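Q&A log
Question type: sequence-to-structure
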Amino acid sequence: MLEQLLSRENLLAALKRVESNKGSHGVDGMSVKTLREHIKQNWQTIRQAIEEGTYQPSSVRRVEIPKPNGGGVRKLGIPTVIDRMLQQAIAQVLTPLFDPQFSEHSYGFRPKRRGHDAVRKAGGFMKEGYRFVVDLDLEKFFDCVNHDRLMMKISEKVKEKKVLLLIRKYLQTGVMENGLVKPTPEGAPQGGPLSPLLSNIVLDELDKELEKRGHRFVRYADDCNIYVKTKRAGERVKASVTQFIEKRLKLKVNQAKSAVDRPWKRKFLGFSFSVNKDPKVRIAKQSLQKAESRIREITSRRKSMKMEERIKELNQYLIGWCGYFSLADTPSVFQHLDSWIRRRLRMCLWKQWKKPKTKVKRLISLGMPKDKAFEWGNTRKGYWRIARSPILSRALNNLYWESNGFRCLMDRYNKLRSIS
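Response status: OK
Response body:
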């Protein structure tokens, strides 16, 4: 296995993956751009250390990402680019060994599976009459993984000691915070290419237990939803599964965030559902709020930037957002967002024109009657109010924004839906 891990084909594939993912530097400050040259110059030394079992990974750089709605911070560990490449190489060798044994109900970080599949599966359970959900939230999952239990599970399929030693070193490499390296006696740093696979190996035991009990469930990483027919059954399942997770897996369930509730009152991977017998997929309220907050940030009239740059930044964000949330069966949400975004763009442009004479001149150039252009160009109404006025809606209509590069959400949504 070590030969396979260190093969030229495997390492080149890992290098290309790390380069394409880009990402920030680790504790050594080396960027992805300089990785290839560094490998060319130092690979023989690195390879020899791995083969002799003396290679020591660098500690990971701690980065804190604020959680939405003020829910604290998510701690990410950023390995050096060299260690990212080696972790990716390990993951590429281990995935074909472990992935085939994983549950059909597990969707996170697996080949040819994604969050949309998990959401569709959840909707299918609701359609079958399982209209209560046991929503389990694992508290600080990546910080609480038991190394000995994890290595025991890996050693069931990986027999080469040098590979096992390298994986354990990555688990115990330590985290650098404020210039000091803290040991990591437990946990798997969230942020490395190997962590998603390791998390699936840990939680595969939970999947197998739920399958043995005959439950309808979907799991995406540490998000696990179990579907039942009654609230009473849900409470019973929640209690027994929590006991299994905490006593057997040595993990902790966050009781404050876990619940037994109707699926349409909960959020799963950014989505929710309608109450229909054949449920429609909806965008969760929190996901919409997050998107609106980001759009407000880009289209803030206090943010001084050229309109073409603003539209470019907006398009970049909306392409990814729509690509994910186009699964929702709610075109009206996309229509509403389109209308609201164009109004915000009109507000920005109206402020950008500044002087009344400039506003009058611009309105006339856009085909507005002179008397109306003079009347509205000299108005004292606020920016947000004027952005909804009939004259500005006509002057800066949908065609205007399209010709200036804004790609509306509704067009993207329809295109993506027709493909899927």
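Response note: The chain has a mean pLDDT of 91.
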